[in-house]
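Record type: monomer structure entry
Structure origin: computed from sequence
Chain ID: A
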Amino acid sequence: MTESRVTIGYLVPVKTNLDEEDESIPKLEIFEGINFIGRDDISVSDKRVSRKHISLNASLDGSLDVTVEGGNPIVIKFEDGRKKLVSKESAILVHGDIVELIPGHHFFKYVKSAVDEVTLSLGTNKRFGMKSGEDENINLKRKRQIDEDEALARTLQDEMLRDVSAPKKNMVTGSSSYPMNQGQTSFDSHDGSGTIRQFDVRKDKLPLGFRLLRVKWLPSWANSSTVSIQDVIQGNVLVAVLSNYMVDTDWLISACPTLTRIPRVLVIHGEGDGTLSHLQKNKPANWVLHKPPLPISYGTHHSKAMFLVYPKGVRVAIHTANLIHVDWNNKSQGLWMQDFPWKDQNDQNKICGFENDLVDYLSALKWPEIEVSLPVIGNVKINSSFFRKFDYSSAAVRLIGSVPGYHTGSNLKKWGHMKLRSVLRDCVFDKEFKKSPLVYQFSSLGSLDEKWMAELASSMSSGSTHDKLSLGLGKELIVWPTVEDVRCSLEGYAAGSCIPSPQKNVEKDFLKKYWAKWKADHSGRSRAMPHIKTYTRYSGQNLAWFLLTSANLSKAAWGALQKKDSQLMIRSYELGVLFLPTSIKKDCSFSCTDNGGSTEVKCESSKNGEDRQMKLVTLCWKGNKNTDSSSEVITLPVPYELPPQPYSSEDVPWSWDKRYYKKDVHGQVWAR
C-alpha cells in the first residue's frame, strides 16, 4: 500500500497586483519533501522558465526551502523586503510570500495549509516545543536571515580563496581546476601558452577588436582584458538608448544605478505583454519603453546594443548579452565598443559607410522622438537622424544588421546575409583563405534545410584574392555544445535553458556533417556555455574576417531568398559588427569618459603617412607582431579553439526538450 503524501501548502497564482487570484492557472499543491516546479506545471510557453525551474523542500512546520534550479533568476517578495535569487541560490519561503518565477512575471503566493490539513503537524510542533502563530513566523524569518547570511559568508570566503587555492582534481572530468563559489565545481585547466592570460590590448587599440564578458566563476587569469556592464555604462551619460531582447529592470538598475540618474533612457526591447506590464509599472520615471514593429509573424527584436550620448560624443556598443543577470555573469559572451566625437561645424556633411548603416538601422526601429536639452547644443530631438551629428570616420568595423520585411530592389543587399555578401564581395583577402573553412557558432538553431544552408554559405564565402580570384566555397562547421558539455558546465543542465533548440531542429540527418565541439580551454570558457554568436573564415590561427552578432543560425535572423532570389524575407531585428583586414587610416584614441587632458579630438594618420593593413589573428597565433611594419596584427579573443574538433561517434548535440537522466555537476537531472 502506497503511503499518502502530506500536503504542506499551495502556490496560488496571482495577478500582477498581487491581490487577485489568477483563475486561468491552477494552484500548485506542495507536498512534504522535495517538489519541483517548472514550465510544464504552470501551463505557459515562456522558454525562460525551465522545465525544472525551482525546487521546494517542504517541512511539516509549513516552511519551504526554495532553490533556483534553472538558469534565470527568481524574485521572492516577503513582508519586509524583496530578494532576487540566481541559479543555485536558496532562501526560505513562509506563508504569504510571493514568488516571481521570472522577475516581473508568473506570480505565485505561498499559502500554507490549515493546521488540521497537515497530518501530524500539531503533534510534531508539540513534540519539539515549536511555537505557533506569530512566534512561529518570527522564527522562520529569523532562520531565513541566518541561512542567507551564512550563504553570503560562504560566497565571500570562496571568492577570496579562489585565486590563491591550489588546483584540485575535478571528479566529473578528471582535469585540474580551481574551487568556485556557490557550490560550483571546477573549471578548465590552464597550460599558460597562447591563452587569454597574455591577452592585453592597448586602450587606443580596443575598438579594433572585441572583448569577452567577465564570468564571475572563473579565475582571474581567464578574465584578462574582459569587460563588465559597469565598464560600458559609466561617466556623465546624457542620453542612453539600450537595445535588447530581454530586460530585467531590477538587475539592470542594481548593476548600473547611474541609469536612474541619466536624464533620458530609451529602452528598445522584445519582451512579451506579461513582462512588459511589469516593466511599465516598475521602470524609473526617466525611462521610455519601445517595442519595434514586427510585421511578420514569429519575429523578435533580438538586437543587443547600447548608444550612450556624452558631452564629448557618443559611445556605440554592440554585444551578445540580454540585460539579465545570468547573461552578464555566467555565460561566454562578447562585446565591441568604440567612442566617436561630435562632428565639427565644417564636417556636418561628412558621411561614411558606418554612419549610413547605423542610421538606416535605427530608422527601422521607429521609436518615438524624445526631446532633451543637451549642454551647448540646447534642445534636440533624439531620433535616428540625431546620430548623424557624430564623426564615425574612425570606425574600425562594418555594421551587419537585419530588419524584418520583404526586401527587394536596392534594399535586397541592405540587410541580413545579403548585406554580408555585399560587403565581403568588395573585400580582398590573402590567398591562404581560398576555399578555407567557415565556422558558425551561436546559441539557438532554427528549422533549417540544405537549400538554405547553401544559400548562406554562398554569402559567407564571398570575397576575392589579390589576383582577383574568388575565394570559393569553404567547408562549414557548426560549433555547438554537446549534452556532456552542458552537463559538466558551470551551471550544469540549467545552462541548457539558454541554448533553446528543440530536438526536431537539432537532430536532422543532414546537420551531422557540420557538428563541431565547443572547446575553449585557452580562454578558460569550456564550461561557460556560449550565448555569444560568431561567424568567421579562418586558415590556421589567421582570420579572413570575423563577425560578432546577435544573429543565431536561422532564416528569421539572416533572411531567406524568395521569388527567384529577387526578394529577401527577414522576420527579426539583429545587429552585428564585422571585423575586416582593412587599412588603418587613422589612429584615433578618442574617449567619451577620459577625465584628464584636453577635450580636443586627435585623429592622426598612421606612421610615415602610409596606410597599415590589419591582420586578424586568434589568441593562439604564434607569430611575431614586430616582424612586418606594413601590417597591424589585431588579436581577437575567439573563445573556442580553431580548428574546431568534429564530434565523435559518442557526442550528442544538445537539445533542450529531451530528457537526460545522468546527473550533472550539481547532482541534477534534466527530465521535465
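Annotation 1: Residues 115-139, 141-194, 597-609 have pLDDT under 50 and may be disordered.
Annotation 2: Residues 303 and 504 are 26 Å apart (CA to CA).
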